[in-house]
Design goal:
It is a multi-pass membrane protein. The chain is mainly alpha-helical and 232 residues long. It has 2 domains: 1-62; 65-224, no CATH class. The chain is 64% helix and 0% strand. It has 8 helices and no strands. The protein is globular.
Length: 232
């Protein structure tokens, strides 16, 4: 069990770094000390550092194979990651009172919900695509625990946030705001409640998605130590 100690400690630290600031009293105190921008910057920095440690610890954990690697498996994360980057670029700091943070309800247009038409929780959906895509080529116990936990957290978080927002803003108000949005990807599109508009597509956010994808692709080998590119 000692060989798994670093992985367990890193996982515990990462979970605590999210669970403790989520408590209303702690969150309010940190915001009072750091300000809203300072709190978000510190929270993001700590999250990135601990996530990097957690991924590195998973790589150093004892290798327990659950399935054999095959070259085709590398295509799965490579196909899903551009979509995840788009979700993150369009979801980050976007007016969306239906997801965590509940940002800018006054600027949210329920008739044209933007990325919320694809998913009310684009950041969690992006996390789900990242995690699920990386499970496939990483068929060892430590990485399946790592990415499987993130995938399960994303799925559970979508439902949990929906219930929490329904309580905080009231079910009737939530129903009105969510009328043309989706929980599962494209749900509102498929049942005719929402139609995307190319005129409303933000080229700046699309460019940010491209830069984010290129950065992740180029930094993967020097930071993680493994090339993310599938064999051609």
């Amino acid at each position: 069990m000692g060989e798994w100690a670093e992985f367990a400690i890193a996982f515990g630290a990462f979970l605590l770094s999210h669970a403790i600031p989520a408590r209303p009293a702690v969150r309010a105190r940190l915001r009072a000390i750091l300000g809203e921008g300072g709190f978000l910057a510190a929270y993001s920095l700590v999250s990135v550092i601990l996530l990097g440690w957690l991924i590195a610890a998973a790589g150093r954990a004892p290798y327990v194979a659950l399935w054999d690697f095959a070259p085709w498996q590398m295509w799965v994360p490579n196909l899903l990651m551009p979509l995840a980057c788009i979700l993150v670029a369009f979801g980050a700091a976007a007016p969306n009172p239906l997801s965590f943070g509940g940002r800018a309800v006054e600027r949210f247009d329920a008739r044209h919900p933007g990325i919320a038409g694809v998913s009310r929780h684009p950041l969690l959906l992006g996390l789900l695509l990242w995690a699920a895509g990386h499970i496939v080529p990483n068929g060892d116990l430590a990485h399946v625990i790592l990415f499987g936990t993130f995938a399960a957290f994303s799925l559970a978080g979508m439902r949990m946030i929906d219930r929490r927002r329904q309580r905080t803003i009231g079910r009737s108000a939530w129903d009105a705001l969510a009328a043309r949005t989706s929980l599962w990807p494209g749900e509102a599109l498929f049942d005719g409640r929402w139609r995307p508009s190319l005129r409303r597509l933000d080229p700046v956010r699309l460019g940010i998605a491209g830069v984010l994808w290129a950065a992740l692709l180029s930094l993967h080998a020097p930071v993680i130590g493994v090339s993310p590119l599938p064999p051609l």
